[in-house]
Design brief:
- It is built from 20 helices and eleven strands.
- The strands form three sheets. It has a seven-stranded mixed sheet with strand order 3-4-5-2-1-8-9. Strands 6-7 form a two-stranded antiparallel sheet. Strands 10-11 form a two-stranded parallel sheet.
- The radius of gyration is 29 Å and the shape is elongated.
- It is of the alpha+beta class.
Length: 412
């Protein structure tokens, strides 16, 4: 553990930091970057830098205007001024000492003058650290570095007060447990269990965002267990808690995408029920459709779609989610492994014919061949050709016309 990447950040932020110092203010680097710098984690070169200062918002604007390429003021009423300086985005927030009302997550903003008071309102000690600019001195009043070293997740103030103020912190607790290999203290776990109903004031979108962040960590099952064992998971995704233990290893081996990992976690559950859960979490229609298709295609694997006719139908229905559906099917039931192997062998045998399922005849061609008018009969004829395509493989136009005439003679 060290601050190996810190000198480059200090150098880049120096012109901005010097402006605050020249105007008699203090400014600090805060947020997850301080934690990740200490852990020597790779940093996104394009990440925004979060700063906090004792300057009031109007003072911050005066400091920044001469050097900023642009300012954005959407967060000004909460004490935050955004600035684009020398190719980097910064968010500079006046020290806060805010409190929450019982029915809302929106803070009543009150400014503080000391960095220690600002850090006390952060979610966990491992995030309640700051680096003073431009000198690079670590400010760690709640021993966050020691907790990182010891693998402990604590809150700077009493956990029940912290979570009552901002219930979303209980979701973040699961994410930090999973992403940083931390163990929550007893009071953190107890507060999560007791304050579960408080989560109901949090928007479903924010809960989904935190769930997605948890799912892409290195050990998502650990965080999900914490949510399950404290009863929080039952408040928005109860099926996941009952399924979790059998899927933990597969979940962490799956691609680090929240969509496939959530589908894997819920594999074997009724797709319509899952769609309802996702709608409740305000997922996009695209996300809901993707998940339903994956779960439906994965469930069909258990029906052994191995014969060419059945495999063609499955392949077409699964479409772009085929690989994800097989991943989910393998996690749902280990007995599916042999079926999946047979499916892949069938796919290899059929080869390029699976690239295009279009029929060589269209509706107007059917009308010409059969001498019928538009309507139900045309649809039935095309459905027959489609079934023939699934059963026998690709048809050229001549074969399709001959098959259609034979079908028509037999039908009449």
């Amino acid at each position: 553990m060290s601050f190996a990447s810190l000198p480059a950040i200090l150098q880049e932020a120096a012109p901005l930091a010097d402006r605050f110092v020249e105007h008699g203010h203090r400014v600090y680097l805060v947020g997850g970057i301080v934690r990740d710098l200490w852990l020597d984690r790779a940093l996104d070169r394009n990440l925004d830098l979060d700063l906090t200062t004792d300057a009031l918002p109007e003072q911050t604007k005066a400091v920044l205007e001469p050097i900023a390429d642009s300012l954005w003021l959407q967060g000004e009423r909460f004490g935050t001024i955004g600035a684009w300086v020398a190719g980097r985005a910064y968010e500079i927030t006046t020290h806060r000492a805010e409190s929450y009302v019982a029915h809302s997550r929106k803070p009543e903003v009150r400014y503080a003058t000391a960095i220690e008071e600002d850090l006390s309102r952060r979610d966990f000690t491992v995030n309640a650290m700051a680096i003073e600019l431009p000198g690079g001195v670590l400010i760690d009043p709640f021993a966050g570095v020691l907790d990182l070293h010891d693998g402990i997740l604590r809150t700077p103030i009493d956990a029940d007060l912290s979570f009552a103020d901002d219930p979303l912190r209980m979701m973040r607790a699961a994410r930090f447990v999973a992403g940083y290999d931390l163990v929550p203290t007893l009071d953190v776990g107890t507060a999560m269990q007791q304050l579960g109903p408080r989560l109901d004031i949090v928007s479903r979108e924010r809960i989904r965002e935190e769930l997605d962040k948890l799912l892409v960590t290195a050990r998502p099952a650990t965080g999900l267990r914490l949510l399950r064992d404290t009863g929080l998971l039952d408040r928005f995704l109860p099926e996941a808690g009952r399924i979790l233990e059998g899927r933990a290893a597969a979940l962490e081996a799956a691609p680090a995408r929240s969509d496939i990992r959530l589908a894997l976690l819920l594999g074997g559950t009724d797709p319509d029920l899952v769609a309802g859960r996702l709608a409740g979490l305000r997922c996009s229609n695209e996300r809901i459709s993707y998940t339903k298709r994956v779960l439906t295609a994965a469930a069909a694997v258990g029906d052994e779609p191995v014969e060419p006719a059945r495999y063609r139908a499955w392949h077409r229905a699964a479409g772009a989610v085929r690989a994800d559906a097989l991943t989910v099917a393998a996690a749902v039931d280990e007995r599916n492994a042999s079926v999946i192997a047979a499916m892949e062998a069938c796919r290899a045998r059929l080869g390029a014919e699976l690239d295009d399922f279009a029929l060589p005849l269209r509706g107007e061609d059917v009308i010409e061949v059969l001498g019928v008018s538009e309507g139900r009969m045309v649809g039935e004829a095309l459905a027959y050709l489609d079934e023939l395509r699934m059963a026998q493989g690709p048809l050229d136009e001549r074969e399709a016309r001959a098959a259609l005439l034979e079908w028509w003679r037999n039908r009449n």
